[in-house]
Design goal:
Elements (H helix, E strand, L loop, with lengths): L8 H23 L16 H15 L5 E5 L7 H16 L3 E5 L3 H5 L4 E5 L8 E6 L1 H6 L4 H7 L18 E7 L7 E6 L3 E5 L6 H17 L12 E3 L6 E5 L12 H5 L2 H9 L2 H6 L23 E4 L7 E4 L10 H4 L2 E2 L2 E2 H5 L3 H7 L4 H12 L16 H13 L7 E6 L7 H16 L3 E5 L3 H5 L3 E6 L8 E6 L1 H6 L4 H7 L1
Parallel strand pairs: 1-2, 7-15, 7-16, 9-14, 14-15
Antiparallel strand pairs: 3-4, 5-6, 5-8, 10-11, 12-13, 16-17
Length: 497
């Protein structure tokens, strides 16, 4: 309207300034990789990474100087194509006279940094030290830095992968997928393989896998399933699957009552061990005495939570340590019972690695402890409250739980960006775990931007070519070599590099 011939000179002059401001702010959003998001998008539907990048875009437009910006993994959910845009944006903030500190695991971001502080050497109580700090060149040359070894290419994530001929393999086939921006596409998912679903942000990956394929499988396999299913015409190959499991990054619980031990089912055999001790039998304590969820053995002041919630009227509720049990969850009588010199509260304070040694004579316990260790959670306490776990840690606890169950060989596991928050070494460990699931005959379908994971996949389904309305098409499919040859694929472009 403002560019219409019907407008007078004054209106054009005013409109020019307004339009210039609007275009400037839109460019900020484009520069952080959000070109696929509609302006009317509801805030609650944004991912954590998207919300963070919107806040970043608003800061660029503020023109402030002398500000310290701290970002926690801003590359979450970003395709390699958009990484450089984000890096350029952060450099603009720096060049304005600000300081930018980024918590990051992505190699491209590290290589673009002026200074790197590398923490370690391990995780949890095994970390917390500055292993190395300096320029990228210094970190690469430092023999103490594991990060440096990956950045320099001395260490690489290279696992064996299988080439697939679809005509010889069982598969799932979904037809007419049209939910949101999907363009009525037909997609084939080979079974018994590690399959990566790739594409730029907003290309339709989650819509296809999490909102269409997963609920469609649930509807076929679970008669009581009532959830929404993304639009599609039909699904074939369900007879080759006995269950579908979504392993996402949602919390394993919303209160301190939930922890890795309770979620994995590890706490039950541990309580059996304590109930079987001579002191417990003499006192007449049964298995339930060692649960912090029922009356009897727990601290009644905090009702076994170890923390007390203080409800705040205008802010988020806060949790404070119970001043009666001091966070130990149990009453004094229960804590008098010990096994190998430790009471139940002290056992819950153990890390997974410490528990591995402590319970080595209990095969039932060791199965679950081993799986938690395999997924890289050896540093985590058995009783660490769910409220203190990151999304990536919660996802790996869920993965460990599935690994500890008896394999049927016909399960489909679906994961949405499982490498979020993982170091190179942890990515390699995770890949080995996923490959182990596949070796047992299961199928693993993952949404991923991490090139190391994509390169180690057996099969790739690439969506795009763009995000939003410009996406939702099947751009390429096949092996790593096939995707690398696809000229229309942005993923292929980066695989070729």
């Amino acid at each position: 309207m403002l560019r219409n011939n019907d407008t007078n000179d004054r209106e054009k002059q005013i409109g020019h300034l307004v339009i210039k401001e609007i275009e400037g702010r839109l460019n900020f959003l484009l520069n952080v990789g959000l070109e696929y998001i509609t302006l009317g998008r509801v805030a609650g539907s944004l991912s954590g990474g998207e919300a963070q990048r919107i806040r970043l875009a608003s800061q660029i437009g503020s023109g402030l100087t002398g500000v310290l910006y701290v970002l926690d993994e801003p590359t979450i959910g970003l395709h390699s194509r958009d990484d450089q845009k984000l890096i350029d944006t952060l450099k603009k903030l720096r060049d304005l006279g600000n300081s930018v500190i980024v918590v990051e695991h992505y190699a491209t971001m590290m290589r673009a940094s002026d200074w790197i502080v590398d923490f370690g050497p391990g995780a949890g109580k095994h970390g917390g030290e500055v292993v190395s700090e300096g320029t990228v060149k210094h970190i690469k040359a430092d023999p103490k830095s594991i990060t440096g070894k990956y950045l320099s290419g001395k260490k690489k994530i290279e696992l064996e992968r299988q080439e697939i001929a679809l005509e010889d393999k069982k598969s799932l086939r979904i037809y007419g997928a049209s939910q949101f921006n999907l363009k009525n596409i037909d997609v084939e998912f080979p079974l018994g393989k590690l399959v990566s679903i790739t594409g730029v942000s907003g290309s339709g990956k989650s819509t296809l896998l999490v909102e269409t394929l997963f609920p469609a499988l649930q509807k076929e396999l679970n008669p009581i399933y009532k959830g929404a299913v993304g639009i599609h015409t039909r699904l074939e190959g369900v007879e080759n699957v006995d269950k579908a499991i979504l392993i996402d990054q949602s919390p394993i619980g919303r209160t301190p009552r939930s922890n890795p031990a309770t979620y994995t089912g590890l706490f039950d055999p541990i309580r059996d061990v304590f109930a079987a001790t001579r002191d417990a039998k003499t006192a007449g304590f049964k298995k339930g005495r060692f649960s912090f969820n029922v009356r009897g053995g727990r601290c009644e002041s905090c009702e076994g939570q170890g923390q007390i919630k203080i409800e705040m009227q205008f802010m988020s509720d806060i949790w404070v340590t119970c001043d009666v049990c001091h966070g130990r969850r149990y009453n004094a009588q229960t804590l008098e019972i010990s096994y190998r010199g430790k009471n139940i509260a002290e056992v819950l304070e153990m890390t997974i690695d410490e528990a591995k040694e402590f319970f080595h004579a209990h095969p039932q316990i060791m199965i679950k402890i081993d799986t938690l260790s395999w997924v890289g959670l050896g540093y985590m306490q058995l009783g660490q409250p769910a409220t203190q776990l990151s999304g990536g840690e919660a996802q790996r606890v869920k993965l460990a739980t599935e690994l500890s169950r008896r394999a049927t060989g016909k399960t489909v596991y679906i994961l949405d960006e499982p490498t979020t928050g993982l170091h190179f070494a942890d990515v390699e460990r995770l890949l080995r775990v996923l490959k182990l699931l596949v070796q047992k005959g299961n199928s693993v379908f993952i949404i991923e931007h991490n090139l190391d994971v994509i390169k180690n996949s057996d099969y790739i389904i690439d969506l795009g070519p763009e995000g939003g309305d410009g996406g939702g098409e099947l751009v390429a499919k096949g092996s790593v070599k096939d995707i690398a040859k696809a000229k229309a694929s942005y993923t292929g472009e980066y695989l070729r590099q």
